[in-house]
Amino acid sequence: MTPPPRPLHTDPDKRKSLDELAALVGDGTVVAVGGGLSSRAPMALLRAILRRGAKGLTVVGSAHGIDIDLLSAGGALSRSSESYVGFEQDFGIAPNYRRALESGTVEINDSCCYTLVQQLRAAIQGLPFMPLRSVRGTSFPPLHPEYRRMVCPFTGEELLLVPALEPDVALMHAQYGDIKGNLVIQGPPVADLLFAKASKTVLATIEEIVPTEKLRELGGVGIPYFYVTAVSETKMGAHPTACYPFYAYDRPHTALYYEAARNGADIFAAEYLDVFVYGVADHDAYLARIGGEASRARLATWRDGREAWKRLYTDKGAL
Amino acid sequence: MTKTCTLGETMIAALARTIEDGTLVFHGFGSPLVQLAMHVAKRTHAPRMVLVAGATYGVDPDPSFLTPTTNDWAMDRGAACSLGIEELFDLAAAGRMGRMFLSGLQIDRWGNCNVTALGFPNVAMKLPGGGGGGNLSCDAGAITLWTAAHRATTDERGRRRFRLVEKCDFITNLGHRAEDGRVRHELGHRGRGPQWLVTELGLFDFDAEGHMRLKAVYPDTSVEEIVANTGFAPKLASTIGTIPPPDRSIVEMIRKLDSLGVHNKELRAEDRRRVFPLVA
After folding, report:
1. Between chains, do B260 and A314 touch, taking CB under 8 Å as contact?
2. Which residues 6-65 of A are in CB contact (within 8 Å) with B?
3. What integer best gives the mean pLDDT of chain A?
4. Is residue B128 assigned to a domain?
5. Per residue in A96-126, pLDDT tens?
6. Are B85 and A190 in contact (CB < 8 Å)?
7. How many CB pairs under 8 A join A and B?
8. Residue B240 is part of a domain; what is its CATH number?
9. Does A198 contact B at CB distance below 8 Å?
């Protein structure tokens, strides 16, 4: 049976509000979150999704941190197929993610980066599966009964087959884009290009929407418009993760987040969720709460040279 | 002029020695000791090494300081280009990646690592997950394992908790013996598996069977101490050496590159105080 054709998004003006984007993430869907670790996570959109009260999401991805930890704290997940969720050596294990998965409210369905890549590639190519040589012999195949083994008809070697993965929704934050949905991603794209091409719906927040003709001088379009469903211009949309060249990783804010998370679900709800997620009506109110223009200016000082950049990792000064 | 080096610096130099010139080497997230080892190797004995930074996938970056997170623009400054995630893993699958560094909260005698969960399927503690370790442990030509938490601790109920364990609760990264008991060569993987393990107590290699074997100690550790802190009986090399301190120029290089002291976060407080004399 040939799978149905992949969607094509051709609306000439895809601008919507952040809340309209969040409303397109249905309960119980499979969601791929863009960016990676402390960079370019679509945090404003994730906060809007939590305010909407999303439930039962399955998340798929490679390297994650505060994004998936926050969704865990907000009770939005029912299954995690992530490859890594943590705060690296900076702070350590992701506390909310850990609690949600250990309590059994979120099913543990861990994957590996290249397994995910091959599954996305199968979807992008309209194929039912892709082969892998690796992973055989680890504990991942028993965790994933959907994997199959085959003997290669050409070489006789044993291969692992992983099924196509077509996420329902990809969420990402790009530095630049236009109203048609063309996206420019500067710096490491992580898995965003694969997510955009493999997913049914692609929702992007954009730091700065510019005229189409300006995109080429900004580095060229990484994700052509026809993959993208809807966009929303969202300044500081990745905060507290970095969105260079606009702003660096807000380490003091992340320290505040982590301290609350480490102290348990109730304290995290009172000191973080009720202040920075549910306690603000929208993204503008969030920006005011984190210190507005002063915070933005502080995080832009990475441009002022090595010592200024280093200070962003040692200074206190979070709100 | 500095007369001593720290344990961290000695570990970094030991990790760097496992890198061959002219090979492509990659590290994962949350591994400052390894990041520094790769930069040391590139600037000393392995100038033709292809250094691919974890998370940014920058090729041969020249950062002016180490940040506490790996996917930061500071970490790919000076890189000629950045690879896409699929390109990086394709390199390993096709046999172009010479070495990868891996770790785990459990490491067994065959070099299997668990970074997924303690207790499985009845999970006592969810760990962050292995990233691409399940793939790269099979595909990369050789693996250097490391941990800065070899020394066993005692939990609140008085039970000893080993980092080097009899059996991993979950095999995230494949060592020399598979989950189903098959030995590595039967699986037909491209990579030869773990070759070295560097810990804060000693240096191990793996024998022809793929079993972990103690090879060297630090000036302040002993075979007895290492055996007592290991959850299985490690094999012992016929002669046990001492891990040499790095050259002074390497110590200075590390201090300049890691001016924020990020790599100390990998070390326990008591290990941060360990220092060794530099050779004059």
Report:
1. yes
2. 36-39, 62-63, 65
3. 96
4. no
5. 999 999 999 999 999 999 999 999 999 999 9
6. yes
7. 195
8. 3.40.1080.10
9. no
Q: Go through A127-161 and write b for each residue having 16 or more CB atoms within 10 A of its CB, e for each that does not.
A: eebbebbbbbbbbbbebbeebeeeeeeeeeeebbb
Nearest beta carbon to residue A112 from set B130, B179, B187: B130
Burial class (CB in 10 A: 0-12, 13-18, 19+), B94: exposed
Question: Which pLDDT tens digit goes with each residue over A43-53?
Answer: 999 999 999 99
Domains in chain A with CATH codes: 18-110+166-244 (3.40.1080.10), 139-163 (no CATH)
Query: Contact A187/A219 with Cβ under 8 angstroms?
Result: no
Tell me what pLDDT residue A319 has.
Answer: 46
**Spatial distance between the Cα atoms of A95 and B269, rounded to a whole number of angstroms:** 22
- Note whether residue B115 is domain-resident: no
Domains contained in chain B, number: 1
What is the domain extent for residue B244?
4-102+136-153+174-277
| Cα A116 to Cα A319: distance, rounded to the nearest angstrom | 36
Within a domain: residue B167?
no
Reported ipTM: 0.96
* Residue B124 domain-assigned (yes or no): no
Which parts of chain A sit beneath pLDDT 70?
317-319
